[in-house]
Design a protein that fits this description.
Largest sheet: 5 strands, antiparallel
Shape: globular
Structural class: alpha+beta
Order of helices and strands: HEHEHHEHEHHEH
Radius of gyration: 17 Å
């Protein structure tokens, strides 16, 4: 797949199944994450790979966090199942570092770029992926369970696997709606 085709056809696939990425595919995905813009070369990221039985451990972390933070029953009841929606999940974290020229927002954006780069690398290799956030990306209890500090930001959970449904999505937006000239 060439770069233009990738950029113009990339999509999120919410129904993912086995197989997940091979070791070689996962290595490419990891390398893509580290090639994103990084002002000051400070590498403000951390990634946690969750696969196999670790997905159940993440589900337990979600469940315990939802209970501890008194979330609604719907969130608590679904918590353990959420990480089982794909063969592999990569948790992307912005590791904020005090820097005179690189503000927090740039560091978070860099980590966000890494999620997109990983998803594109997965897609280019015939895999599917979806970037998820929501309550569990904002939960202080989840951050604590993952040994993150209060300044760290979970920018997303990248679910990766094989698309369960072959459903090509057509573009939803037109450039003229969002681009103007100065």
């Amino acid at each position: 797949m060439d770069a233009i085709e990738l950029l113009l056809t990339r999509q999120s696939d919410s129904k993912l199944t086995e197989p997940g990425p091979s070791i070689e595919q996962l290595n490419i995905i990891k390398q893509a994450a580290l090639r994103v813009p990084d002002h000051g070369c400070i590498a403000p990221w951390q990634f946690i790979v969750v696969e196999g039985q670790a997905r159940e451990k993440l589900g337990s972390i979600y469940h315990e966090s939802a209970v501890a933070e008194q979330q609604e029953d719907k969130v608590i009841n679904r918590a353990k199942e959420l990480p089982l929606r794909a063969p592999i999940i990569i948790i992307a974290i912005a590791k904020y570092q005090q820097h005179p020229k690189v503000p927090r927002i740039e560091q978070v954006q860099s980590a966000g770029c890494s999620v997109l780069a990983m998803q594109q690398a997965a897609f280019a290799q015939g895999l599917g992926g979806i970037w998820r956030t929501g309550y569990f990306a904002q939960s202080n209890a989840v951050k604590l369970a993952l040994n993150l500090n209060e300044l760290d930001e979970i920018v997303g959970y990248l679910y990766i696997g094989t698309p369960a449904v072959d459903c090509k999505k057509s573009p939803r937006h037109k450039p003229e709606t969002y681009f103007t000239d100065l």
